[in-house]
Amino acid sequence: MTILTGRPLHWAITAAAGCGFLLFGYDQGVMSGLLTGAAFTAQFPEIDTTAGAGGSASLQGTVVAIYEIGCFFGSILALVFGEKIGRRKTIMAGCLVLCVGGALQACAYSIPHMIVGRIVAGLGNGLNTSTIPVWHSELMMAHKRGKGLSIELAINIFGVMTAYWVDYGMSYVDNESQFRFPLALQCLFALLTFALIILLPESPRWLIAQDRHDEARSILLALLPVVKNVQTDDEPVNREMSEIQHAIDEEREAAHGNSYRALFKNGEQKFFYRTMLGIGGQDAYAPSIFQNSVGLSHNLSLLLAGFNGVAYFLSSLIPIWIIDRLGRRKLMLFAAAGQGACMAVLAGTVRNGSAPAGIVASIMLFMFNFFFAIGLLAIPWLLPAEYAPLAIRQRAAALASASNWIFTFLVVEITPVSISNIGWRTYVYFCIFNFCFLPLIYLFYPETQNLSLEQIDKLFTGGKVMLHWKPSMGDAVNTNRSELIEKVEGQHIEKSGV
């Protein structure tokens, strides 16, 4: 039984998940501000691409992008081992591996040394990003799951913003700590996430799948707002555990005992369809890297990146209050349309090339981040955990995470080449790419607002995928947990004499 219970436990779980994604965000942002620093370029002249330096832009791109390859293989490791060892142990392993990678980068004195550190850190981050959203989703109540994941991703952007400002502050330091301290700081966040996870419970759904029912029951009770008035044999708790077990039995039967093969099969449970929806959502995440495509002076670019990070973070707070009210589909459609419009304007302003057009282009990058934060920041990490059934949830989420990292790597690699060769037309095809998501989201992505993970299974079960929950299927809220919460809180009020 965990020491914390009720709402403090929920906040602790969200804090741990957020800390893991703060680490993810910090890792994503920290390197960009170091590449043109005086101490960094002095230590690694092979990748010094400042005017007249003669360093290799291709090698610099590899040093930056190799992190995504590490993340990709980390996600594959989660796919293979995550379901066997559980959510918590996978996250803790990811934190330790990432800590080693951060230390290797911080003490690097050569390019090969730095590359090894980047790959190792990526392996750890791949394990974390594949598993944390699944663990978090399986511990959240249905009507707060979207809010919880939105908080997690807002903290992720806070990590990006932190990296930008740490880089900016350290740029005034005239020694090797200018880049070694920001790289070493990753280890602090990794160790903090590890320490928090040790104190927090395993996913009750994973425990039930492992036939560890007593532990799962204790955790489900601990997650209630008031625990002391509830008995372990309370009927709603039994009903919820029975519902989870029933879903597990159906999924195991549909998977025929092979969860790897089930990823690529449809059948009654639509496993392949649901896996591909999670992968498709992650592909929309890759264009966020365009915030690095504006070429300015080193100091001004760091400063602008810092303010961009602040605006991005503030935008990421908005879904916390609206995702469970408006739903996933509306926010994704809004974001894809807004991003497409930003890319269209960006193409026109870059083609124009004038100073006023450059100002508009910079505003478009800020606006792109705004739309992205509203509808495509948290949701692509949430959907794989929501859409995938428990029998393949860890592996489907890992596959979705792997797809994110490989697509991000490809975009990082091709964008400079594309801009160099076809210029403003690069933004045209990314405009088209964003608008293509509109019919795909509208036609194929079911709404999961206020549905339990077991209720979401019912949207995919049968001959036709249901895009919305119908009243004939019952209450769209997680009735078992809500009924128990109301009962417990009612008992608490009655005993308090309120």
UniProtKB/TrEMBL annotation:
GO terms for molecular function: carbohydrate:proton symporter activity. Keywords: Membrane, Transmembrane, Transmembrane helix, Transport. It is found in: Membrane. It holds the Pfam family Sugar_tr. InterPro entries: MFS_dom (IPR020846), MFS_sugar_transport-like (IPR005828), MFS_Sugar_Transporters (IPR050360), MFS_trans_sf (IPR036259), Sugar/inositol_transpt (IPR003663). PANTHER family: MAJOR FACILITATOR SUPERFAMILY (MFS) PROFILE DOMAIN-CONTAINING PROTEIN-RELATED, PLASTIDIC GLUCOSE TRANSPORTER 4. This is Major facilitator superfamily (MFS) profile domain-containing protein. The lineage of its organism: Eukaryota, Fungi, Dikarya, Ascomycota, Pezizomycotina.
